[in-house]
Amino acid sequence: MLWLLFLLVACAAAVASCARLCAAAVAAAQEPEGAGAGRGALSLYETAFLSGGPQRVGDLALVTMDRQRRLLLAHTGWVTVVDPDGQDELERSVIAAIGPHGQSPVPPVRAALAGAAPVRALADRLVAAGLAVPAAARTNVAAAVRQVRAAAGLVLLMGAAALLIMEPEPGREKAAAWFALPLLLTLGCLAIARVEAHPYTRWASPAGQKLLGRIETPRPRPARPAYGRGGRVGAYGREGADAELLTLLALHGASALPDPALRAAFKAHWGH
């Protein structure tokens, strides 16, 4: 009956880890009373943070400056400064991250932007407004998920050890069935976490997710000429197309960009 000790260890690990994950998910779902009440539409950078976190904000800043011809994002994965005068703190952080030579591979720029002071300030404002999940809550959920995964591995290890010390007899099948219970508990908990708790490991709180849900995903369209009175061709209608492209990026990330050259700039080094 030594195998019962292995079963107890497996069950204890499974129950404790799943309980921790449930508690972490509940804590992450909590938000201040009145969060998001009376809040107007999200800005593009707020949308980017709530949808994809600090890295998405950096992506949006890079593409915004590229569309305004103040940066050049090459399909090779390099970024070059065209206009060294940033219009706000975030753009100045972009230029500083590129460095004094005015050119850099995209990955270090993206990494620097994720921890830049303007991005941290944006995160703090969204957390204070109850629209973003605090970093501590996100960390707790991620740690709890790792613990459940470790518990599932421990259950398999304990089950294998128990079967090895048992004599070949019908009782081995019964023991295996008992070990299947904590294994199903951990795997089921991970599956539920993937569906239910995974949004909290993104970035938006429930209130933030509601605001994101109000934003309609645009259908990107190429810039086309705008005709003025008398049929004369005016400036190319870039503004509407660029606004749709930036909204698409803020909501869904670089992989959703319709421009092949921009997608190539991200894929060249970021592995999207």
Report on this model:
- By secondary structure, the chain is mainly alpha-helical.
- Helices cover 65% and strands 6% of the residues.
- It has helices at 3-29, 44-67, 89-98, 106-114, 117-128, 135-165, 171-201, 206-213, 238-252, 260-270; strands spanning 71-73, 78-81, 103-105, 225-227, 233-236.
- The protein has a three-stranded antiparallel β-sheet with strand order 1-2-3.
- The termini are far apart.
- Residues 223-237 have low confidence and may be disordered.
Strand portion? 5-15%
Uncertain spans: 223-237
Q: How many β-strand stretches? A: 5
Quick check: average pLDDT?
83
Q: What level of helicity do the residues show? A: 55-70%
Strand order of the largest sheet: 1-2-3
Helix tally?
A: 10
Query: What structural category do the secondary elements indicate?
Result: mainly alpha
Order of helices and strands: HHEEHEHHHHHEEHH
Shape: elongated
C-alpha termini separation: 52 Å
Quaternary structure type: single chain
- Summarize the main sheet: 3 strands, antiparallel
Features:
single chain; 272 residues; mainly alpha; three-stranded antiparallel sheet; two-stranded antiparallel sheet; 10 helices; elongated
